[in-house]
């Protein structure tokens, strides 16, 4: 098993390097750079050139790349051209917000998806199954940004039940960050007011982000449960008069959840990508919002760092999935 | 015949096929069906943001254009981008998958590692970067989507080709001296075409969705294109008063994507009974 | 049976999940003494690195300057300086500092500190240095004594005094301790403060582009005797989407919005009790730039054709609901140097067609698709482009709208070949002098900057503008600018649409809001909070 993991890790390194090269070339091809914007309203071309020199943007691309690789190797992502803060700091301040949002969305997806999938399997090919199928296919067919706007329009603008944006009300000062995730920090410090307010702010973004997850988890749970229900030992237990409800809890769900886990892992990667849109709409101060901002202002180092971060998350999740697969099905290990 | 019968029994899939058919018909005859086909470009300042009425069943937008007409006209762009992206992605991804799956050693390995690199590029970031590079437009959105979508086909074809290349009948073909190209395209390819078709159908829906996101973020379609995502983005300033402005283009996206997904789902059941609705 | 129980349990769990959130109640009452602004923040908070409208909101509060603009129309008022003198050749400027002004850390503001501030601006070389670099060398800023700052310019530069408020005075003792290499403390000051302004930053709460908390500085040199009800704490919490910002205002969680509200939102605010619209004429000209070096816009008839094809009244009356003033020249009509007799161009498709035909006869490729670049984040640039597009379509011209970003446009305007055919933006007030408009937009020495991106060239105009730049007395400069403006308008290098009326949503508990076109009324010390 260890060899298998090591091998996967080794294989991932060239992929990440490739990703870095690809992104670097792509971003360097982009004509826009921060120099002109930084030079401001009254700048002369000479001043713009001077700023470009300060940031090393006048160097040939390969020189810039080698220098950048050297920095990355020391885990130094440089600083944002605009905010002038270390990118690592900015990401570390924003990542908890994104993680909080995606984890909540995932948990919500699991909480809704697993029961729905089980129901669909139990009513296999009867009307609840058909309805749930259309719903679960529909869940991935909804444009998240549109759904978010409709939710905002209804629950925030018309009814005024839920907040439109952000993680907390303006008047509330959060406890100083421990994990950076407000739900956990407020529990640790006993700030129930912050907890309530944060939950209240999380509702709409997490609901929007969980849509695709609910759909996917429902389908996989359904498939897993159906599969298990047809297994011999289940038929046997049923024949023995074992109560169906307990049977589902004890055997069926436990068995099918293992299969669903790999899917949930993959889902996490796509949730992080989905966060870009959801964070933009809800002004959620996370990594996704940060990314869009960096792209709109051509903040190249931030774009590189974020791409790399998402690439690493994606690679790690993939390895984890492979490991779980390997555990479940030892044949895969030998084959690979 | 059996296949058709089986398909007809699958009500959600039939519903999907029906929706797709309608969208295609609407797209083909869009200029004839739209009550105000000129509203693709014209603006009528005096008719700004009128709520739905008999003259404008979906209301009008911030420049006084009929939203129903623009939703109808927008179906063309959505379908065109989906067809082009999925088609090109297949042209790139399928041959690469065949080669990687059939060959062994460094060729296969390099091929799949490159595929992994492209799979790892965050699609939205790539699309946004390309939009910066080429200027935001439908073309740059399509390029970005194609660049990130072909690896899916490579992956699928790779897995199938790998499985097939170990099977007896390929061995037999090699024994009787059939050329590699011949084996690949005449024997391996037809056997892995079904999952490709399923993926392509679902990919159509997926592409429409991501293209709409790009339009929404201002990195895809440009005004005055009657693009659905762009319309939703423009509508945000006029909420909540002009609810119709965002609602109808969004419903159009939803229905179209739902149609493709239901259809793809149904096709998958037919193509691969083993997986019966498991994926 | 038990399966049904399971289903029921699942249903209950689901309903609970959905129900939890709305149960949590909320209260968003405005807090006494706390003013919340929903206006935009600069990308970082070093006033020597960034210079734009959001930065002015921040630096007007956290920093002080030698002179400062107050009121509308804006007047220069002595601030940290008491007075100034200028030599007759316009080269030597001396500023006398007021006594007793202190930085937030309690140290006195001396002439040496002011010298350091100007030298830092020049060394950093970013946005605020633009006005000074061509005429001022670092070593020529000196402090002959503790309360005098002396500038010796390389050549006479009349707008020098108008540009003085651009430079915020910083505390060198704090910055020098944080320098990294020769960065002049840029990395540090980008998220910290070293000023003396009426409000003091709480650096712990600072999040770039998200949040700034400013506490009232009791020791400010102006004192607070004139305003006992000034806000104790000012929070700046921007939102990207205007409709969200306005909703915050309507719900009372935000006291001030930005001042560029679209008219639909204005109507929403006017219909609501407890909030109102602050309406002020500004100095901010909405302009459609044409690339005069690219065909067909190298042809004057083609340019005039476009100038006659824009529906000025329709745009101002229908889209802006009348909240703007037609401004037919590049300078705002409420600034000195604006020629009162200038007519400009009117919306007349017949005339447009005539000019078009003339241009075509002269060989201008008017039939080619022409691109207009808009700023994707700014809806009005889009509306203007779409309006022009639909009118041009009627006379057979194919206008293509390209959605673009500020960073991209400003990079591309460095060369005539890459500058867009047309693009849309506002020219705002950074210093109140015609130099800020016609000077930097149409003197050909500025080619390569986005402000001069119409690539206009007219030797006579160059001469007039350069003469005006080096003449000190305003009375002598005024006719030069009027003459230059007349010539420019006659050449029709751009399409000038309107001078902005700034519209800001304000809650009724905010009194004494003072607007100035420089900084859009961002100075919080005048506000009385009820």
Report on the structure:
The complex is a heterotrimer of chains A (336), B (279) and C (530). With 336 residues, chain A is mainly α. Chain A folds into two domains: 2-73, no CATH class; 93-335, MetI-like fold (Orthogonal Bundle). Chain A has helices at 2-29, 34-39, 45-54, 61-73, 87-122, 127-141, 144-158, 182-189, 192-229, 232-239, 244-282, 287-296, 300-328, 330-335. The two termini of chain A are 12 Å apart. The model of chain A has no long low-confidence stretch (mean pLDDT 81). Chain B has one domain (10-22, 63-277): MetI-like fold, CATH 1.10.3720. The model of chain B is unreliable at 275-279 (pLDDT under 50). Chain B is elongated. Chain B is mostly helical. The two termini of chain B are 25 Å apart. In chain B, helix 2 packs across helix 4 and helix 11 packs antiparallel against helix 12 (243-271). With 530 residues, chain C is of the alpha+beta class. Among the domains of chain C are: 64-186, Dipeptide-binding Protein, domain 1, CATH 3.90.76.10; 281-501, Dipeptide-binding Protein, Domain 3 (Dipeptide-binding Protein, domain 3). Chain C has 16 helices and 18 strands. Chain C has helices at 2-23, 53-62, 111-124, 160-163, 172-176, 186-189, 242-251, 263-270, 300-309, 312-319, 349-361, 379-394, 406-412, 438-442, 459-470, 474-491, and strands at 34-37, 67-70, 75-78, 81-86, 92-97, 141-145, 148-152, 199-201, 212-216, 233-236, 275-290, 324-326, 370-375, 399-404, 422-427, 494-507, 510-511, 528-529. In chain C, helix 9 runs antiparallel to helix 11 and helix 15 (459-470) packs antiparallel against helix 16 (474-491). Chain C is globular and about 70 Å long. Mean pLDDT of chain C is 90; it is low at 13-28. Classes of the chains: A mainly alpha (336), B mainly alpha (279), C alpha+beta (530).
The residue-averaged pLDDT of chain C reads 90
* 3D shape of chain A: globular
Radius of gyration of chain A: 24 Å
Q: Main sheet of chain C: which strands, in order across? A: 12-16-11-15-13-14
> Could you give a short account of the major beta sheet of chain C?
6 strands, mixed
Q: Percentage of helical residues of chain A?
A: over 70%
Main pleated sheet of chain A: none
């Amino acid at each position: 098993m260890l060899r298998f993991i090591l091998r996967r890790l080794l294989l991932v390194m060239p992929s990440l390097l490739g990703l870095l090269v690809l992104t670097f070339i792509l971003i360097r091809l982009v004509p826009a750079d921060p120099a002109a914007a930084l030079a401001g309203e009254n700048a002369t071309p000479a001043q713009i050139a001077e700023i470009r020199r300060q940031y090393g943007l006048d160097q040939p691309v390969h020189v810039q790349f080698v220098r950048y690789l050297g920095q990355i190797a020391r885990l130094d992502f440089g600083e944002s051209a605009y905010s002038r803060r270390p990118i690592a700091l900015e990401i570390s301040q924003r990542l908890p917000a994104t993680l909080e949002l995606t984890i909540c969305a995932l948990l919500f997806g699991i909480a809704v998806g697993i029961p729905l999938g089980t129901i669909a399997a139990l009513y296999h090919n009867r009307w609840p199954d058909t309805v749930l199928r259309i719903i679960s296919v529909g869940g991935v067919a909804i444009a998240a940004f549109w759904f978010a706007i409709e939710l905002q329009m209804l629950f925030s603008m018309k009814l005024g039940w839920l907040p439109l944006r952000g993680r907390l009300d303006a008047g509330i000062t959060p406890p100083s960050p421990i994990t950076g995730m407000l739900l956990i920090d407020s529990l640790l410090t006993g700030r129930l007011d912050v907890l309530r307010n944060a939950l209240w702010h999380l509702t709409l973004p997490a609901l929007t982000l969980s849509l695709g997850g609910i759909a996917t988890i429902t389908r996989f749970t359904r498939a897993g449960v159906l599969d298990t229900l047809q297994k011999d030992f289940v038929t046997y237990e049923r024949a023995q008069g074992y109560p169906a409800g307990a049977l589902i809890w004890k055997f069926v769900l436990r068995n099918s959840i293992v299969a669903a886990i790999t899917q949930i892992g993959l889902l996490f990667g796509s949730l992080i990508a989905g966060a870009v849109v959801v964070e933009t709409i809800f002004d959620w101060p996370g990594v996704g919002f940060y990314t869009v901002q960096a792209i709109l202002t051509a903040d190249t180092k931030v774009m590189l760092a974020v791409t790399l971060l998402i690439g690493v998350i994606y690679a790690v999740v993939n390895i984890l999935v492979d490991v779980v697969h390997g555990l479940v099905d030892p044949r895969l290990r030998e084959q690979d | 015949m059996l296949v058709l019968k089986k398909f007809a029994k699958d009500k959600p899939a039939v519903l999907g096929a029906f929706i797709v058919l309608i969208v295609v018909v609407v797209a083909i005859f869009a200029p004839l069906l739209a009550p105000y086909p000129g509203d693709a470009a014209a603006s009528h300042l005096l008719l700004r943001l009128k709520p739905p009425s008999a003259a404008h069943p979906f209301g009008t937008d911030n420049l006084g254009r009929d939203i129903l007409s623009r939703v109808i006209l927008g179906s063309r762009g959505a379908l065109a981008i989906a067809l082009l992206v999925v088609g090109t992605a297949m042209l790139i991804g399928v041959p690469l998958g065949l080669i990687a799956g059939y060959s062994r050693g460094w060729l296969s390995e390099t091929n799949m590692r490159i595929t992994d690199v492209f799979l790892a590029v965050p699609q939205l970031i790539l699309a946004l970067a390309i939009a910066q590079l080429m200027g935001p437009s439908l073309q740059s959105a399509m390029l970005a989507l194609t660049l990130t979508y072909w690896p899916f086909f490579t992956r699928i074809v790779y897995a199938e080709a790998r499985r097939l290349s170990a099977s007896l009948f390929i061995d037999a073909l090699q024994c009787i001296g059939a050329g590699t190209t011949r084996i690949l395209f005449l024997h391996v390819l037809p056997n892995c075409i079904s999952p490709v078709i399923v993926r392509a159908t679902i990919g159509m829906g997926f592409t429409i969705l991501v293209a709409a996101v790009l339009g929404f973020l201002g990195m895809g379609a440009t005004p005055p294109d009657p693009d659905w995502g762009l319309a939703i983005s423009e509508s945000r300033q006029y909420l909540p008063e002009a609810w119709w402005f965002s609602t109808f283009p969004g419903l159009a996206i939803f229905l179209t994507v739902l149609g493709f997904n239901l259809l793809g789902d149904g096709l998958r059941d037919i193509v691969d009974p083993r997986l019966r609705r498991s994926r | 049976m038990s399966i049904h129980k399971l289903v029921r349990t699942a249903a209950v769990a689901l309903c609970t999940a959905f129900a939890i959130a709305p149960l949590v109640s909320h209260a968003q009452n405005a807090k006494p003494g706390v003013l919340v602004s929903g206006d935009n923040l600069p990308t970082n908070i070093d006033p020597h690195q960034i210079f734009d409208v959001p930065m002015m909101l921040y630096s007007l509060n956290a920093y002080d300057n030698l002179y400062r603009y107050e009121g509308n129309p804006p007047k220069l008022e002595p601030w940290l300086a008491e007075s100034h003198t200028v030599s007759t050749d316009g080269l030597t400027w001396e500023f006398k500092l007021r006594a007793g002004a202190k930085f937030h850390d309690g140290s006195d503001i001396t002439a040496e500190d002011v010298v350091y501030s100007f030298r830092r601006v020049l060394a950093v070389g970013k946005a605020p240095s633009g006005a000074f670099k061509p005429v001022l060398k670092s070593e020529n800023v000196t402090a002959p004594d503790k309360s005098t700052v002396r500038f010796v310019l390389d050549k006479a530069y009349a707008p020098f005094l108008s540009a003085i408020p651009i430079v915020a005075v910083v505390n060198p003792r704090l910055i020098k301790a944080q320098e990294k290499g020769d960065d002049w403390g840029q990395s540090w000051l980008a998220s910290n403060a070293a000023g003396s302004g009426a409000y003091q930053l709480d650096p712990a709460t600072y999040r770039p582009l998200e949040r700034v908390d400013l506490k009232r500085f009791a020791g400010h040199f102006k004192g607070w005797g004139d305003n006992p009800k000034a806000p104790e704490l000012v929070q700046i919490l921007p939102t990207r989407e205007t409709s969200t910002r306005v909703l915050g205002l309507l719900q009372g969680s935000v006291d001030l919005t930005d001042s560029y509200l679209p008219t639909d939102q204005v109507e929403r605010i006017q219909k609501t009790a407890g909030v109102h619209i602050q309406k002020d004429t500004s100095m901010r000209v909405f302009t459609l730039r044409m690339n005069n070096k690219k065909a067909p816009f190298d042809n004057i008839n083609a340019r005039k054709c476009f100038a006659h094809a824009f529906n000025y009244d329709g745009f101002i009356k229908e889209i802006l609901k009348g909240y703007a003033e037609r401004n037919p020249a590049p300078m705002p009509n409420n600034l000195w140097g604006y020629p009162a007799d200038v007519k400009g161009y009117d919306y007349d498709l017949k005339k447009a067609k005539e000019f078009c035909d003339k241009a075509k006869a002269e060989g201008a490729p008017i039939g080619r698709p022409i691109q207009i670049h808009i700023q994707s984040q700014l809806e009005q640039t889009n509306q203007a482009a779409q309006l022009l597009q639909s009118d041009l379509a009627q006379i057979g011209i194919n206008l293509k709208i390209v959605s673009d970003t500020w960073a991209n446009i400003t990079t591309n305007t460095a060369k005539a070949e890459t500058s867009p055919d047309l693009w849309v933006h506002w020219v705002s007030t950074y210093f109140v002098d015609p130099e800020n408009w016609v000077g930097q937009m149409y003197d050909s020495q500025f080619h390569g900057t986005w402000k001069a991106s119409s690539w206009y060239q007219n030797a006579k105009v160059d001469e007039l503008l350069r003469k005006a730049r080096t003449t000190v007395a305003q009375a002598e400069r005024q006719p030069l600018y009027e003459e230059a403006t007349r010539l420019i308008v006659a050449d029709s290098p751009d399409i000038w649409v309107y001078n902005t009326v700034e519209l800001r949503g304000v809650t009724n508990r905010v009194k004494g809001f003072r607007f100035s076109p420089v900084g859009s009324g961002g100075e919080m010390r005048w506000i009385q909070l009820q």
